[in-house]
Every structure is written in C-alpha cells, then in structure tokens.
Amino acid sequence: MPFFRHDGGEIHYQARGRGGPPLVFVHGLACALDDWRHQVRRFAPSRRVVCLDQRGHGRSRGYTSGFDMATLGADLAALLARLRLPPALLVGHSMGCRVILECARTSPAAVAGLALIDGSRLASTSAASAGAATRDAIRQLGYETFFERLFTQMFTPSSDPAIREAVVARAKRMPEVVGAALMVSMVAWDAESVEEALENLQVPVMVLQSTCLNERRERVSLRGDESVPWLAFIRERVRQADMEVVPGVGHFTMLEASDTVNRRIEAMLERIEAGQTPG
Predict the structure, then answer these.
(1) How far apart are CA 18 and CA 279, in angstroms?
(2) Are 247 and 224 within 8 A, CB to CB?
(3) Is 179 buried (19+), middle (13-18) or exposed (0-12) by CB count in 10 A?
(4) Helix (H) or strand (E) holding 226
(5) CA 105, 37, 227, 276 torsion: positive or negative?
(6) Who contacts 132 (Cβ-Cβ below 8 Å, separation ≥6)?
(7) Omega prior to 157 cis, within 30 of 0
(8) N or C: which end of the chain has fewer CB within 10 A?
C-alpha cells in the first residue's frame, strides 16, 4: 500500500497501469478510493490510473486538521506533482467534484480535463451564513443521525441493499471532527468559490448527473429528460461542457451505473486526446 507523506500525515493512494492521459479518481465525503473499483478495472489495463483516500478518509492517516476544500485540493495537487504525472483527467464524485475544481483552479497545468459525477451546489448565500446553517443542522439532529439521514437518501428503492448498507455504515464511522468540518467547508466553498472555479476553466468538462435535491432538500433520482439548477449553473459558465442525465439510480453513479460512467469517461479521454478544448 503506497503512502505519500505530506503536510504532517500520509495520503494513501493506488497507482496502476501505464499510458496517458492519466486518470485520477477523487471520492466524496465519508467515502474511499474503492468506490472507483469498476472504473479502475476498466481503465488500468490501458492507461495510468490513480486513486487516493483523501485526508481523514480510508487508509490515509495522521491528519488532525485541514478538513476543508482548499486543503484537499492542495493535497491532490501535491500528489499529482509527486507522481510526476502529465496533465490528467480528474474524475470527482460529489465532494470530489469540488476538490478537483479547486485543484484545477490552483494548479491548472496539472489538469487535462474534468469529469464531475453527481455534483451539486448546496449553498448560494454567503459562506458564513451557509456554514452556520449547516452547523446548526448537525447540532439539532446530532452528528450520527445527520450523516445517517444524509447518506440513506443517496439511494433509490431499487439500489443494491448491500451497497447501500455498506456506504451508510461507512459514513456513520466518519469521525465528527472530520465529517462536520468538511460539510461546513463544502457549503462555504459552494457559496463563495464554485462560480470562479467554473468560469476560469480552460479544459474540457464532462458532467454526469443522476440525482438532485428537491424543494425539501431531499435527494431524489432524476428522469432522463430532466434538468436541474446545477446543470444550468454549469452550462452558463462552461462553454462546450458535455452533460448527460443518468436516470433511475442514486447518488453513487459510478457504482450503480458503471457502464454509463465508463463509456462517458472513454469519450472524454478521446476528446482530450483529440485536443478539443472550450473556446
């Protein structure tokens, strides 16, 4: 198990295969690199594939602070530099979408393209008010109940029960010092940073969306012909972004619709290799 010593701790990662452009997979909140197992199996035979456990997650160890989007983006950029990768296609899920956008904002030379898997914008008010509201919600429900409800909503009635149970149980094990801080940081980043991060992109972008938050702030699966505010928000700021709705599945698109995700990643790699960029 390789580890990258960085910023007072150790980032656990896996690197397989050869060839480029490389693929780098970034998981979401209270998740781990194994969430990308179907993608690693598909792409590692033909190109360099890297996954990491972000600080506070999985087998990464030794971190007691830095649980915010800016630091996670810097962690990712440092790992890319350590591995001396050529510009890579960064693939993020949920919170990982924010991390790869932050990495692209601060380290654009490391990035050949972005794939955003079921991302969202959780707040559009001020960062301070969004963060305060999130802290209040966690306090009122209690941390474990908050996370259990949050992750239970990420699946549909037809989702594989084994996947649902494993994901929810894993989320409930996330230490409060990590999970609460990252939730607050996510909504603050959405409020104050996501717009700039999208508008400054100069690389191809692909978006796959399978869920959204309804008016009651409940996560629901999308229909094939449905659009959501997050997609419109991206479309207004990123010209030539490729978008597709993946209907009938939950939030963990790469696990529940792996063939679709793999097909779209393959198309994105072909687009990058052909040298197509927004313009």
Answers:
(1) 30
(2) yes
(3) buried
(4) none
(5) positive
(6) none
(7) no
(8) C
Report the phi/psi class of residue 86: left, alpha or beta, with left for phi > 0 and alpha for psi in -120 to 50: beta
Do residues 150 and 179 touch, judged by C-beta distance below 8 A?
Answer: no
For the segment 196-230, what is each residue's pLDDT rounded down to a tens digit? 999 999 999 999 999 998 888 788 999 887 878 99
- The structure tokens listed for 37 are 């197992």
The pLDDT tens digits of the residues spanning 163-197 come to 999 999 999 999 999 999 999 999 999 999 999 99
Cα–Cα–Cα angle for 279, 25, 182, rounded to 5 degrees: 100
Among the CATH numbers 3.40.50.1820, 3.90.550.10, 3.40.190.10, 2.60.40.3500, which is that of 3-122+192-273? 3.40.50.1820
Convert the pLDDT of each residue in 105-153 to its tens digit: 999 999 999 999 999 998 877 778 888 889 999 999 999 999 999 999 9
